[in-house]
Hints:
This protein is about 45% helix and about 15% strand. By secondary structure, the protein is of the alpha/beta class. Among the domains are: about 45-180, 3-Layer(aba) Sandwich (Rossmann fold); about 200-380, Rossmann fold, CATH 3.40.50.720. The strands form two sheets. A seven-stranded mixed β-sheet has the order 9-8-7-6-10-11-12. A five-stranded mixed β-sheet has the order 1-2-4-3-5, with helices on both faces. Helix 7 crosses helix 8, helix 7 packs across helix 16 and helix 15 crosses helix 16 (about 405-430). Bound molecules: glutamic acid (GLU). Glutamic acid binds near residues 82, 156 and 385. Glutamic acid binds next to strand 3 and helix 15.
Amino acid sequence: MTAQNLPSEPEFEQAYKELASTLENSTLFQKKPEFRKALQVVSVPERVVQFRVVWEDDKGNVQINRGFRVQFNSALGPYKGGLRFHPSVNLSILKFLGFEQIFKNALTGLNMGGGKGGSDFDPKGKSDNEIRRFCVSFMTELCKHIGQDTDVPAGDIGVTGREVGFMFGQYKKIRNEWVGVLTGKGQSWGGSLIRPEATGYGVVYYVDHMIKYASGGKESFAGKRVAISGSGNVAQYAALKVIELGGSVISLSDSQGALILSGEEGSFTPEEINQIAAIKVERKQISELASTAAFSSKFKYIAGARPWTNITGRVDVALPSATQNEVSGEEAKALIASGCKFIAEGSNMGSTQEAIDVFEAHREGNQGATAIWYAPGKAANAGGVAVSGLEMAQNSSRVTWTSEEVDTRLKHIMEDCFNNGLATAKEYVPTAEGSLPSLVAGSNIAGFTKVAEAMKDHGDWW
Ligand code: GLU
């Protein structure tokens, strides 16, 4: 993969190897050897756009950032995927995210290609005016490369409805057209109901199927203790849905530290989650709330830590929902030692390869009540982009569906996504008698096969 003349792209290489190794270890290439060629072709983006973003800060200084859009694959539809604004953003990270997005979008069953973009701009510590000026400059260039039938970005880390609004306004001014070129829009001007909730709700709907399948329909979220990382939109809505289904949320976190229930009983309440959501709108850290009397009497705050090794008491379900590589091999072992049976990623590539190897070994090696089941982000968090796809459908037909209608469709998409990964694993992945099927391998093969077949029809490989 890494030819000598290519720059090192560690995150992209990790995502590529994770997919390729599951294809290699299945019977896919024995049954369809020609798909090896498709893997080579699909691993190179169709196009990468890089550009300069110059904007003015509140002191009148010139600020410069890098802007990117990776238009990875358009076999199934317009490029689709979020924009990430974070100081860590570089081409390796956006290629990994774009690569994941191709197969995730395929798993939704909707007609969307895969793309990702963003900037190394850091929204933390910026004023609202600075954010607006940055978004306007960013879209001044990006608008030349996107369009409702070409490439439809959305949010990701650091890009919320506010940023989508500023970028949408600039696109509309320059191109002089009101079209659904971005998703995650404001709900009074074309955004879909349930889009903010969709990724978090979708993860929980997906895990609900995992729990029911693994327990033969005997168990549900009721009574489950759920460790969540992150405190952005994915973590917040996953937490609220867990509580609605009768589970307990026992941790949340941000880049500065983890907030964990001190005792072995209880849960974050919806009110506490809403308080966290409110400070996140202001781009503040959880530590500000953690030191208040109400929070410090109920939670422990551990600066610089992730939740996984610091939970008090049992964990049943873990939902990494912050960013990539947020569960190490050691943390995976600690989660299993705490009793964790289900791990599903709200984040993209939340687990390192070492962590996936630990989870998968415990799936294959254990049976019944001791089996561990891991679901990768490209399946478990597909609900966000799925509702983006539903937003595109509503925009093109100039209609607005009710919350109930969107939520019902989201539930069906997550169910199909789970069943598709499961059935594909049973078909292609040799598994020890009595073990749960590999959702990571099944989802990879299902997503890859769909895209590879469309590419073949288009003459992209032969
Ligand atoms: N950034 C989200 C993801 O990782 C959503 C992308 C979208 O809605 O286009 O899937």
